[in-house]
Design goal:
Blueprint lengths: L2 H14 L2 H34 L5 H11 L4 H12 L14 H25 L3 H9 L4 H11 L1 H16 L3 H7 L9 H11 L2 H30 L2
Helix pairs in contact: 1-11, 2-5, 2-8, 3-5, 4-5, 4-9, 5-8, 5-9, 6-7, 8-11, 10-11
Length: about 230
């Protein structure tokens, strides 16, 4: 099959709303959003705590988070595979080769990004915000809420960055999800499978969808960063 024919067939699949193709996209988006929902609250709280409090092991924890930013996704998948396998410590939950297992894996991948960017945002916040809140008699909880409101655009940008990280990864999704058709097959694992089979049309179509999602995410992050910089 020529490249032009494969591209034509890919565009036809997108135009006709191929149910298999859009089912794969749905799995990817569902898993990614659930992973962010799981990872964001604890990661943001950890980033805030690291920025505002001194405690034993704080420096080591920051170094660990920064190290996890560069951790290959296949290594995360390998670790989770052994944890979730039937004989592993989490085997009783039967999460291996399920969307739940993929959500857990992608939450692990998104967590250090969210924590590190929240830490950076809170440390870079205008110190006058906290000082003004204290002068007005605000308590610790009120001060914390005010500070988080100040860096809300940076936190939202962290979420978009985390989304970009997990929507495009393949190693963890393949090892933990198993690439099961209609269940755990997402955009990246489907592209790899279809390309290896020589079925380029669906791979190209899914690639177009993935690039489109990445563009939307990056435009969204640029818009948020622009709004944050106007304050």
């Amino acid at each position: 099959m020529s490249l032009s024919q494969a591209l034509f067939d890919a565009l036809r699949l997108l135009w006709e709303g191929d149910p298999t193709l859009w089912g794969i996209v749905h799995v990817s988006l569902r898993v990614c959003f659930l992973a962010l929902l799981l990872a964001t609250p604890p990661a943001v709280m950890l980033g805030f705590a690291l920025a505002n409090f001194q405690f034993p092991g704080r420096r080591m924890l920051i170094v660990l988070i920064q190290t996890l930013l560069a951790l290959p996704t296949v290594v995360v998948g390998l670790i989770l595979y052994f944890l979730l396998t039937r004989n592993g410590p989490l085997g009783n939950y039967e999460l291996l080769f399920t969307q739940g297992g993929m959500v857990l894996g992608q939450a692990v991948l998104a967590f250090p990004i969210l924590a590190a960017m929240t830490l950076s945002a809170v440390q870079g916040a205008d110190a006058r915000v906290v000082e003004t809140a204290r002068m007005l008699g605000a308590g610790r909880l009120r001060i914390a809420c005010t500070l988080m409101l100040e860096v809300r655009f940076a936190v939202m940008a962290a979420m978009i960055t985390g989304f970009g990280r997990v929507i495009s990864e393949i190693g963890c999704a393949m090892m933990v999800g198993g690439n099961i058709a209609g269940v755990t097959r997402n955009i990246t694992t489907a592209i790899a499978l279809e390309t290896s089979k020589g079925e380029f049309a669906q791979g190209i179509a899914l690639g177009i969808v993935l690039v489109s999602i990445a563009l939307v995410a990056n435009f969204g992050m640029a818009a948020l960063q622009g709004r944050g910089g106007q304050k």
